[in-house]
Specification:
This protein is an alpha/beta fold. Helices cover 44% and strands 17% of the residues. It contains six helices and five strands; from the N terminus they run E-H-E-H-E-H-E-H-E-H-H. Strands 2-1-3-4-5 form a five-stranded parallel β-sheet, sandwiched between helices. The chain starts with 5 loop residues before the first strand and ends with a helix.
């Protein structure tokens, strides 16, 4: 049996609205993933350090402060600097389409806006992190 997908869900910066992050974390957990929720006011370095320490497959960022361009880019930069660019970054928040396109160019795997269903998020995660041995299991 393959190891479960490990996801760090984080709230970077000064944004204090974490209900959505907690709901997504619970949905990912209910879908069979191991989830570590870091809590509020995390720095990009703290998020990267946690992901490395937890041997995470992914980092899910929730950004509602409007600082998404800076925060996503900094997490990605620090992952590369730590030789951990294989950790997938995805996230959500109120992100304008133009900004979302730029974040995807930087390497953000997926972005989910307000109103996205939990089944869409967990379905994306199941597909994105399908284990090789799951795909070939009888």
């Amino acid at each position: 049996m393959p190891a479960p997908v490990r996801v760090v869900v984080a709230k970077p910066g000064l944004d204090g609205h974490d209900r959505g992050a907690k709901v997504v974390a619970r949905a990912l957990r209910d879908a069979g993933m191991e989830v570590v929720y870091t809590g509020l006011h995390q720095t990009p370095q703290q998020i990267v350090d946690t992901a490395i320490q937890e041997d995470a497959d992914a980092i899910g960022l929730s950004v509602l402060s409007g600082a998404h361009n800076t925060l996503f880019a900094e997490v990605l930069r620090r992952l590369r600097a730590a030789d951990a660019a294989d950790i997938v970054v995805f996230g959500g928040g109120i992100i304008p389409d133009d900004d979302a396109a730029e974040l995807r160019k930087l390497g953000v795997a997926a972005l989910f806006g307000p109103g996205t269903s939990l089944s869409d998020i967990t379905g994306w995660a199941r597909t994105a992190f399908e284990r090789d041995d799951e795909a070939t299991a009888p």
